[in-house]
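Form 7-S
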Amino acid sequence: MSEQTSFPTYDLYRQGLEWLERGEGAAAAEVLELAVEQEPAKASLHETLGRAYFRAGRVARATEQFERALALDPTDDYANFGVGRCYEREGRPAAAAKHYKLALALSPRDDYERALARVRQREG
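Output:
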């Protein structure tokens, strides 16, 4: 039986971020899944895993992770933005707008404002 090597959660998180910065969502997700297994109560890990899944085109999994991050930390502006992006990708602009508004209320950022304007335009 082979011995499994365990890496500190922070190292896994940093490695996942590096993969994300390179545009490698699937590779980032593999590493971040291990981090989440080690520390399932950390909202930041779920948010980052959501980003990785989204980048890899796994929108349903991304939504789950962003929602888990929000359950752990309702003030996470980027998790709200992430849920909004997932809903927008699924063609649900009204649901996306709700989360973009929350993200914008928590942190007034230009990208949140642009996203909200974009989905409002689609709503009609």
